[in-house]
Amino acid sequence: MKQVTIYTDGxxxxxxxxxxxxxxxxxxxxxxxxxxxxANTTNNRMELLAIIEGLKALKEQCEVQLYSDSSYCxxxxxxxxxxxxELKGWRTSDNKDVKNVxxxxxxxxxxxxxxxxxxxxxxxxxxxxxxxxDKIARKEIEIHQKQ
Length: 147
Hints:
The chain is of the alpha/beta class and 147 residues long. Helix content is 41%, strand content 33%. The chain is built from five helices and five strands; from the N terminus they run βββαβαααβα. Strands 3-2-1-4-5 form a five-stranded mixed sheet. α1 (43-56) runs parallel beside α4 (101-113). The mean pLDDT is 95.
């Protein structure tokens, strides 16, 4: 199974507001960047979309080291929130509807196909690829707001 590294980040201008996302995929020294924009969204949706679009860009089943500065996304997997939400019919621990459920369900399908290891990185620190993802996600917002 191919081993791939993916860095992701989402950004929002206002929350909700205009949003951008970016995923940088690395395999054997080669990089591919996937990015996009939504006009009216939230930061959490952009963080999720960055991961989803990064995984969707893979052409075959892979083992993925995924890096994100989003506690929301990483903790859902590493702390078992996602499994708990699913078992409770997509309800949170305080019995509220899980937000972004369609994105979580899509991400769950992708993580069932690929072997994904979630890694939390500190945002806006000295992590070069995380900073690059942030810059590209913000650029998506800037480009689309000028149109």
